[in-house]
Amino acid sequence: MQNDRQGNGNGAADPSRIFEIGFGFFASKVLLTAVTLELFTILSDRATTGAELGRAMGLHPRGVADFLDALVALGFLEREGDGEHGLYRNTELAARFLDKASPDYIGGILEMCDARLFGFWDDLGEALRTGRPQNEIKHGGRSIFEELYADPRRLEQFVEAMAGVSRGNFRALAGTFDFSAHDTLCDLGGASGLLAVTVARHHPHMRCITFDLPAVEPIARRTIERAGLDGRVTVHSGDFFTDPLPPADIYTASLILHDWNLAKKKALIGRVHAALPEGGAFIAIENLIDDGRRHNAFGLLMSLNMLVETGDGFDFSGADFRSWCLEAGFRHCEVRPLTGPSSAAIAYK
Ligand SMILES: C[S@@+](CC[C@H](N)C(=O)[O-])C[C@H]1O[C@@H](n2cnc3c(N)ncnc32)[C@H](O)[C@@H]1O
Asked: Rounded to whole angstroms, how far apart are CA atoms 246 and 187?
């Protein structure tokens, strides 16, 4: 029999998981700083010495080798050779997702994590003690969107961040959901317009509307124009809690329901149900928490992020979504996995 102090075979005596998570902010901040400094974009498809890279990013020589080699050890850079002659290049992962020139760039959300969330999460303890948000709205009376959108740079940053985090899910939805029986989709809180554009691109018979607050409209127009989809994708500005929803036989809402408290979640679900024709569908894309609330750590952490960002918003499980939608009058619901920790929760009228 094994001595308990040495380990009982279930790994409980090895504290490395505790260190990995406890020191996780070291690794997190190295990656976020690299994205903010545009390291992966500067490298692009070149191989460059550390000294050259340090100069290109405007860094003091003191920390450059440790910074770059930490990124090698973490799997975001490769290094050929050692010492001052070593040449750094992007790994395949970094080249695809962290170089701004790549169509799959997702760094926007990491730029926002670095500029906003990293600091706000320092006050998680206060959020837990008070139940209050810890971001820009902590000391003012404005809502999070009023606050974010009052500064055009922050508005662009937020919308770009959302596109980064959601791009893979939009492609997965466009590639897997059967749109053949439908012809109009309205994306509620569509931000950059990326979901509407992605579905329209994959399904030439679909007409798509991206619906969001007026401040976001110029950015959505830009996305649609760049995609060459003017005409088939349109922008509709308004407030989804108070304005009539444009007619559609599918409503989508990506990372929308989790922004709001239960009463507002139910109000929005009720409005969508009322606007849908029979046979229509409501698709909510979220980091759905597993029904037993044990496994989807990212969904649970995202829910804490909603505490930090909004105060009363929270993430939820497929079972929660189902109960709210059945209460609103939907016939049945299903959950389909999208990318990573995200899923589509679908309610049919
Ligand atoms: C968390 S973002 C999600 C963006 C996008 N759906 C995605 O997944 O990338 C929430 C969006 O809801 C929009 N929004 C917030 N309140 C709104 C309202 N009352 N009416 C319409 N849109 C709203 C915001 O402007 C923002 O674009």
From this structure: 10
